[in-house]
């Protein structure tokens, strides 16, 4: 799915992300979509894209974000991530909650 607008660096990035996703067991079609979306978001963040959403430009980078917003697959968010969200939402009793309890509390 590499596009003409992509530089050589972005094409290498796309291939690396696609191969990584396939190594984790994702089907090829899904791996291609993940890679293309990630590369396009990084292009938007770097000002390389003609059009981009405000979220793509201002959000934390894809690599740093990891699975912060993941609510399914690969176990979803970690207990620590859920705890930090509960802390931001000022949920009482969060320090003694299990992962399942935190998931219910923050959703």
Characterise the protein shown here.
It contains six helices and no strands. The mean pLDDT is 82. With 107 residues, it is an all-alpha fold. The chain has two domains: 1-66, no CATH class; 72-107, no CATH class. The chain has helices at 8-23, 28-45, 54-58, 62-65, 79-88, 99-106. It is elongated and about 55 Å long.
* Structural class category: mainly alpha
Label the overall shape: elongated
Order of helices and strands: HHHHHH
Unreliable spans: none
Largest sheet: none
Counted up, domains total: 2
How much of the sequence lies in strands comes to under 5%
Q: How many E strands? A: 0
Q: Give the quaternary arrangement of the chains.
A: single chain
The proportion of residues forming helix, as a percent range, comes to 55-70%
Distance between the termini: 36 Å
Average the pLDDT over all residues and give the rounded result: 82
SSE order and pairing:
Elements: H1 8-23, H2 28-45, H3 54-58, H4 62-65, H5 79-88, H6 99-106
Helix pairs in contact: 1-2, 5-6
Relevant terms:
107 residues; mainly alpha; 2 domains; 0% strand
Summarize the structure.
This protein is mainly α and 107 residues long. 57% of the residues lie in helices and 0% in strands. The longest helix is centred in the middle third of the chain and has 18 residues, at 28-45.
């Amino acid at each position: 799915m590499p596009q003409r607008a992509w530089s050589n660096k972005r094409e290498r990035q796309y291939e690396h992300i696609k191969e990584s996703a396939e190594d984790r067991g994702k089907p090829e079609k899904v791996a291609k979509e993940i890679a293309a979306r990630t590369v396009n978001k990084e292009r938007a963040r770097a000002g390389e894209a003609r059009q981009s959403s405000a979220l793509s430009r201002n959000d934390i980078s894809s690599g740093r974000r990891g699975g912060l917003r993941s609510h399914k697959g690969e176990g979803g968010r970690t207990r620590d991530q859920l705890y930090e969200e509960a802390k931001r939402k000022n949920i009482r009793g969060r320090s003694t909650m299990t992962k399942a309890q935190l998931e219910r509390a923050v959703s």
